[in-house]
TrEMBL record:
Top-level taxon of the source organism: Eukaryota
Phylogenetic placement of the source organism: Eukaryota, Metazoa, Chordata, Craniata, Vertebrata
Gene3D superfamilies: Cytochrome c oxidase, subunit VIIa
Gene designation per UniProt: COX7A2L
Entry annotated with the keyword Transmembrane helix: yes
GO biological process: mitochondrial electron transport, cytochrome c to oxygen; mitochondrial respirasome assembly; regulation of oxidative phosphorylation
Protein name, entry field: Cytochrome c oxidase subunit 7A2 like
Organism: Astyanax mexicanus
């Protein structure tokens, strides 16, 4: 239990340090990778939805 409290306290100090880095990127490379992956998937999903809406809005050609 003591080890968990020490680890939690040291992480709190990392987040409180005023170094100009956003809170979601404070812990380094892994945070950057997760952030960029999340943003890429979000933008890709949004573009895919807009493309699907555009295709669905087109009138069908009669056969």
């Amino acid at each position: 239990m003591q080890l968990l409290q020490i680890k939690k306290h040291s992480l709190g100090l990392v987040y409180l340090k005023a170094d100009g880095v956003p809170i979601h990127l404070k812990r380094g490379v892994m945070d950057r990778l997760l952030y960029r992956t999340t943003m890429g998937l979000t933008i890709g999903g949004t573009l895919y939805c807009l493309m699907a809406l555009y295709i669905a809005a087109q009138p069908r050609k009669p056969q």
